[in-house]
């Protein structure tokens, strides 16, 4: 991960220190979920859904609201690959690396994707258009190689040519 | 035109069908119908499981449902020209799905409704036999419901194959100490029902298809479990990689509440059951039941020591039934048709049916539900049609990334938990991934170790460190460095992981590695 690690003992930050959009995202997430049992994952999902990532500076407010230490929240955020600690590019492309897709050429597609984008997994292209992430199964194992673009745009039987076309479309989309 | 009745057209909203262009097809059908002044209702069903025919469009005609496939958006104008709305002849016309040989040889119990009904409609679900199981269960004692599940012979379909009824009985018999302090004071229930919908194994997608194609079946199964053991709250722990299943579940749950099939007064019985979906966050290990429970509690998804079993001390420290999607979805028909009906399918100690997923390099991939006992060879060639690439099938991995690789000489193994165990393999969740002869089995062995390193929860050393060392040792074997010594070291490492790991991730990762070495040693011979 290219993310900057948090300092070991960050100064206590309150929601007042957050950027307005971050403060709103945290407040909405806490309003919706803080009273639910085991609320931390739903809260982190809500923040990431709104901001595209979980900014490290939001962890203190979340920890305070749930009566957890910041270390506990940090531990949870860093445990789960889905939660990002840095903003993604405009489009996140999740390329399946698992066996069923390997059987249909996913290894070659992975090499092609990294080469043509000029980045490795967990990185974003210099123009900020595309973030490439590995994913371990999208449940499309009968029609691989599989690629998930954005939240829910699933693609089947992705050839290198099809991948290039999707990248071009993503670059012109915004 | 105004006199013509409304015609129902089915276009799947299954994730694989969507990936193959189903949305564009549905849109083209709706638009063309409107332009032609024809009243068409497009129902977004689940998939019938024949992926090489997706998007598979079905039309409800006076002679029954007629299928066309695979349909591209560009085919739609031609289909209208051919009068497909009345079953007209067309190159893509397949006739009735039930008559297709691939479909006819199945025994669909769990997946009887998937692809047939509107997945979100309680009314449609009821019209196809839905909620008869719950109705029966509400009229029985909890003990009798659990006995029926036990008698059916149902074993956990997630992979471990533990008898479902025994698990339920443990929770039923566990005292519900409502007033005792719990680790989380917000805990609402004295017992819990948890569905493991963290279907992370490559080559498996039956949970996804069931949740997208017949989510009410899962909801009914979990409700029956709640009624049986006395739990009022259920959670479906769904992986975040399944956005389409998430949407289907949320909609189906909302509809079930509205119709009185969830909530405070199930069918007027006075019994309560609430259900909620919780999303995972990309961690494979959360498919392991104790990690899943920790994740549901809002923690890092790390494996717990067992005992205590989740059935005694599970979610928030309470007795918890935790089962796979297909296990729960098999329960409604058991309570509807009786334990004996279900038990009559299958062989040996593997009773009932298994939704088998054909994946990877096969011509006809998809979901086939069959009684236990069919051989791997029949599935690969008769059902799957051989390899997609046209090259010989060289290796098959069954049971996900922790499953052994089987060579051609083992293709006559029957799908049966014990038969697979006897050849050092496992049936797992019923996913079958075929590879052709271009596969490099050293690469596959290395990937197994790499996957374990990526996904290890980090709690135990053999898994956390062993997997990384495993990758290094295999790289040295590939590079011809101290070949004999490193092969011996790999064997030793596999033994340590197998016997010293806390859960199946570290414990079973050696299976694909050792089986690759044993059956495909030529790939490790150096180059």
Describe the structure.
- The complex is a heterodimer of chains A (174) and B (527).
- The longest helix of chain A is centred in the N-terminal third of the chain and has 14 residues, at 20-33.
- The mean pLDDT of chain A is 92.
- Chain A has helices spanning 20-33, 40-51, 59-66, 70-79, 99-102, 106-117, 160-173, and strands at 91-96, 123-124, 130-135, 147-149, 153-155.
- In chain A, helix 1 runs antiparallel to helix 2 (40-51).
- Chain A has seven helices and five strands; from the N terminus they run H-H-H-H-E-H-H-E-E-E-E-H.
- Chain A folds into two domains: 15-79, Arc Repressor Mutant, subunit A; 91-173, Glutaredoxin (3-Layer(aba) Sandwich), CATH 3.40.30.
- Chain B is of the alpha/beta class.
- Chain B has four domains: 7-104, Glutaredoxin (3-Layer(aba) Sandwich); 122-343, 3-Layer(aba) Sandwich (Rossmann fold); 346-436, Ubiquitin-like (UB roll), CATH 3.10.20; 441-524, de novo design (two linked rop proteins) (Up-down Bundle), CATH 1.20.1440.230.
- Chain B has 21 helices and 16 strands.
- Chain B has helices spanning 15-19, 22-35, 76-81, 101-104, 122-127, 132-138, 142-152, 164-173, 206-213, 215-229, 243-258, 289-296, 325-337, 339-343, 376-383, 417-422, 441-455, 461-478, 483-500, 504-508, 510-519, and strands spanning 7-10, 40-43, 57-61, 64-68, 93-95, 192-197, 233-238, 274-279, 320-324, 346-347, 350-351, 353-360, 366-371, 393-398, 405-407, 431-436.
- In chain B, strand 7 (233-238), helix 11 and strand 8 (274-279) form a beta-alpha-beta unit.
- At the A-B interface, helix 2, helix 4 and helix 5 of A face helix 1, helix 11, strand 12, strand 16 and helix 17 of B.
Relevant terms:
heterodimer; A: 174 residues; alpha+beta; Arc Repressor Mutant, subunit A; Glutaredoxin; 2 domains; five-stranded mixed β-sheet; 7 helices; B: 527 residues; alpha/beta; Rossmann fold; Ubiquitin-like (UB roll); 4 domains; 16 strands; 15% strand; globular
């Amino acid at each position: 991960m290219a993310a900057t690690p948090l300092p070991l003992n960050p100064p206590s930050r309150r929601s007042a220190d957050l950027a307005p959009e971050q403060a709103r995202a945290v407040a909405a997430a806490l309003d919706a979920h803080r009273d639910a049992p085991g609320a931390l994952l739903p809260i982190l999902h809500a923040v990431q859904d709104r901001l595209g990532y979980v900014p490290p500076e939001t962890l203190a407010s979340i920890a305070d609201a749930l009566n957890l230490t910041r270390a506990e929240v940090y531990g949870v955020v860093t445990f789960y690959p889905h939660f990002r600690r840095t903003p993604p590019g405009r489009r996140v492309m999740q390329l399946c690396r698992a066996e069923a897709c390997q059987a249909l050429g996913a290894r070659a597609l992975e090499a092609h994707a990294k080469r043509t984008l000029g980045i490795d997994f967990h990185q974003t292209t210099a123009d900020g258009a595309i973030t490439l992430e590995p994913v371990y199964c999208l449940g499309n194992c009968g029609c691989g190689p599989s690629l998930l673009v954005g939240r829910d745009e699933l693609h089947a039987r992705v050839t290198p040519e099809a991948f290039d076309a999707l990248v071009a479309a993503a670059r012109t989309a915004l | 035109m105004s006199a013509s009745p409304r015609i129902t057209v089915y276009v799947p909203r299954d994730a694989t069908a969507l990936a193959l262009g189903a949305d564009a097809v549905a849109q083209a059908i709706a638009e063309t119908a409107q332009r032609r002044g024809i009243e068409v209702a497009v129902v977004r069903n689940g998939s019938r499981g024949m992926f090489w025919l997706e998007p598979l469009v079905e039309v409800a005609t006076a002679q029954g449902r007629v299928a066309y496939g695979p349909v591209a958006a560009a085919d739609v104008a031609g289909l209208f020209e051919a009068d497909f709305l009345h079953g007209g002849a067309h190159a893509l016309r397949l006739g009735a799905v039930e008559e297709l040989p691939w479909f006819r040889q199945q025994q669909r119990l769990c997946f009887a409704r998937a692809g047939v009904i509107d997945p979100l409609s309680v009314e449609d679900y009821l019209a196809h036999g839905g909620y008869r199981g719950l109705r029966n269960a509400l009229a029985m004692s909890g003990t009798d419901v659990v006995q029926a599940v036990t008698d059916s012979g149902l074993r956990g379909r997630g992979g471990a194959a533990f008898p479902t009824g025994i698990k339920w009985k443990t929770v039923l018999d566990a005292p519900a100490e409502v007033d005792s302090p719990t680790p989380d004071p917000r805990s609402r229930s004295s017992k819990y029902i948890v569905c493991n919908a963290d279907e992370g194994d490559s080559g498996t997608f039956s949970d996804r298809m069931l949740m997208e194609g017949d989510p009410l079946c899962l909801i009914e199964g979990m409700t029956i479990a709640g009624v049986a053991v006395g739990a009022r709250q259920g959670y479906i722990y769904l992986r975040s990689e399944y956005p389409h299943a998430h949407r289907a579940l949320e909609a189906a749950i909302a509809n079930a509440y509205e119709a009185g099939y969830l909530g405070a007064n199930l069918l007027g019985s006075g019994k309560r059951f609430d259900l909620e979906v919780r999303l995972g966050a990309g961690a494979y290990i959360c498919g392991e039941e104790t990690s899943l429970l920790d994740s549901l509690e809002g923690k890092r998804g790390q494996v717990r020591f067992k005992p205590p079993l989740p059935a005694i001390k599970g979610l928030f420290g309470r007795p918890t039934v935790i089962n796979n999607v297909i296990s729960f979805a098999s329960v409604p028909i058991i309570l509807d048709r009786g334990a004996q009906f279900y038990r009559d399918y299958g062989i040996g100690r593997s009773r009932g049916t298994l939704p088998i997923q054909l994946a990877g390099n096969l011509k006809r991939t998809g979901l086939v539900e069959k009684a236990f006992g069919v051989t791997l060879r029949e599935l690969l060639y008769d059902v799957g049609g051989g390899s997609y690439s046209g090259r010989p099938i060289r290796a098959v991995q069954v049971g996900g990334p922790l499953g052994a690789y089987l060579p051609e000489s083992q293709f006559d193994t029957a799908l049966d938990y014990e038969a697979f165990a006897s050849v050092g393999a496992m049936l797992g969740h019923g996913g079958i991934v075929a590879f052709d002869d271009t596969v490099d089995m050293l690469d596959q062995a290395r990937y197994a170790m790499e996957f374990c390193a990526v996904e290890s929860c980090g709690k135990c050393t053999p898994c956390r460190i062993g997997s990384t060392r495993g990758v290094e040792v295999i790289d040295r074997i590939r590079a011809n460095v101290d070949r004999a010594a490193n092969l011996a070291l790999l064997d030793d490492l596999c033994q340590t992981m197998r016997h010293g790991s806390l859960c199946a991730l570290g414990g079973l990762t050696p299976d694909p590695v050792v089986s690759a070495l044993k059956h495909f040693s030529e790939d490790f011979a150096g180059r």
